[in-house]
Amino acid sequence: MTVQFTLIGSAHAATEGETHSETGVGGEVGKGGGTFPPFDPTYFASQLLWLAITFGIFYLLMSRVALPRIAGILETRRDRISQDLDEAQRLKDESDAAIAAYEHELAEARGRAHAIGQEARDVSKAKADAEREAAEKELAGKMADAEARISDIKKQALGEVDAIASDTVGLIVKELIGGTVTKAEISKAVSAQTGKEAG
Fold first, then answer.
1. Phi-psi category of 182—alpha, beta or left, where left has phi over 0 and alpha has psi -120 to 50?
2. Number of DSSP helices (H) and strands (E) in the chain, helices first
3. Contact, 20 vs 29, CB < 8 A?
4. Residues 1 and 50 sit within 8 Å (Cβ to Cβ)
5. How many CB atoms sit inside 10 A of residue 30's CB?
6. Which of 12, 153, 163, 164 has the most CB atoms around its CB within 10 Å?
7. Half-sphere CA count of 29, side-chain side, radius 13 A
8. Count of C-beta atoms within a 10 Å radius of residue 186
9. Tell me: the pLDDT tens digits for 18-55?
């Protein structure tokens, strides 16, 4: 556009130089003064025409080439962003579902562990109770046997006490008095003495 204005200005200057040369005043005006061609009102019409042509060409290039490419890039970017957002939402939903499933399984595992622990405690308690009851029964049986043996030994000892006492009395009488006493008399005396002590 500047080249065009320059060409127009040069052509205008040449024409004006010829005009001034023909009239005889060209030497002074062409050299010293004059208006800059883009600011000269004489060229406004041609400048506006070239401006309109250039703007039209630029507008066509923008609307047919640049703007569709930009629109396509923006559309592709918008679709990609939308897909990324959808993918992020899908991944978020999957992670939420996985967390919920994990928490559910964890709660079930804790419940199972609690049930197993309670069952083990119940079994251990029942086993300990059974063993304690068996030990108590065994101990009670042993105590009964021991008491029975003690009772038998006591009876046997008491039965032998009379015989020992009779023998001892016989020996004492023999040593002290020098005489003999029958066993019947000794037994009668020991029984009488035992009866008195018992009474």
1. beta
2. 5, 0
3. yes
4. yes
5. 17
6. 12
7. 16
8. 19
9. 444 444 444 444 444 578 877 888 888 889 999 999 99
Amino acid found at 20: H
User: How far is CA 94 from its chain centroid?
Assistant: 16
Residue type, 133: E
CA distance linking residue 194 with residue 199, whole number of Å: 8
Which single residue is written with the structure tokens 């030497």? Answer: 27
Reference 12, options 48, 38, 49; nearest CA is 38
Orientation angle between helical segments 44-61 and 2-23, nearest 10 degrees: 160
Residues 6+ apart with CB under 8 A from 169: 181, 186, 189, 190
Model pTM score = 0.36
Tokens representing 97? 């579902």
**165, 195 contact by CB (below 8 A):** no
